[in-house]
Amino acid sequence: MTSEAATIGLTHGASEDTGLGQRGPQSKSIVVPYGFWLFVLSDMVLFSALFATYATLVHATDGGPVTSQLFDRSLVAVETVSLLLSSFVCGLAMVAAKRANMVWTQVWLVLTGLLGLVFLVIELREFAGLVAIGAGPQRSAFLSSFFTLVGCHGAHVTAGLMWIGTMSAQIWAKGFQPHIVRRLLCLSIFWHALDIIWVAIFTIVYLIGTLP
Amino acid sequence: MTEPELERTNVAPGQPHDTLLSETVAYVIGLGLALVLTGVSFWVASTSALWGPGVAVGLVVLAIAQMGVHLVFFLHITSGPDNTNNVLALAFGVLIVFLVMVGTIWIMAHMNANMGISPELMNLQMQH
User: What is the distance in angstroms between the Cα of B79 and the nearest Cα belonging to chain A?
Assistant: First the structure.
């Protein structure tokens, strides 16, 4: 704390507590993840619009297949568990990264990516199967909204997988420097948020869609 | 004020804090709760033991509960004083999400009902 900064009012001693909370900006390790948290929340707003579209169009099937004819619950259960485990393992990677443990950070990160890949492969096979039986996105308004909603989540997972690979390489090459760890923290926020959105998808699209 | 002092008054979202054991245990508890809630969701959707019309509502409640578990145990959003900013941002996000979803579903359902045409015809119109 320099005396010059104190003179122009950027900092205060403890005796000059203004009652307005902390003095000066927070450190980067707080501000950067907070900003990323705001991005993630805005991403959830984007998904809420897609959910609203889906809910509006779910019965607009144009005589084509309806939800209960298309979805396979056991596949969705495997997808759900693999994404949940991926989210959990990502948390373990953060615990290891905080302690600058290279081996375990890399192990957990790779496992996070592999479980995410399992999820993505199952989803892509489901999409390919739907298109193959003539239930592609152009079949009906319901299927357009279905592919937009679930595909948008899948695109996020794809981006997350590339990000995981990038972070794994950066930690390997540059070590646990503060700015690298901040990026890793943002990645973990992103990955946990994707699992939260998936909870809404498997409930609203797959489970409620296949109720008897 | 030194850096560590500042750090204590605020935590970043997603950042685990405390000892190795307590951090890991928090993730394990979160995983366990999420698995239980997921399992209950799939069971509720499959069983015929429950009152049919209530199942969808029950599934939505279970999903919201699981989202809460993810927020608390994975993203470490808590009610502590060091988390005020994160919680406020989350509350605003939830408000917007609620307005967009409920507002859209409500308005579109009423438009369907008030257009004075049969649902089948409405269905046809909405496909073009």
Answer: 16
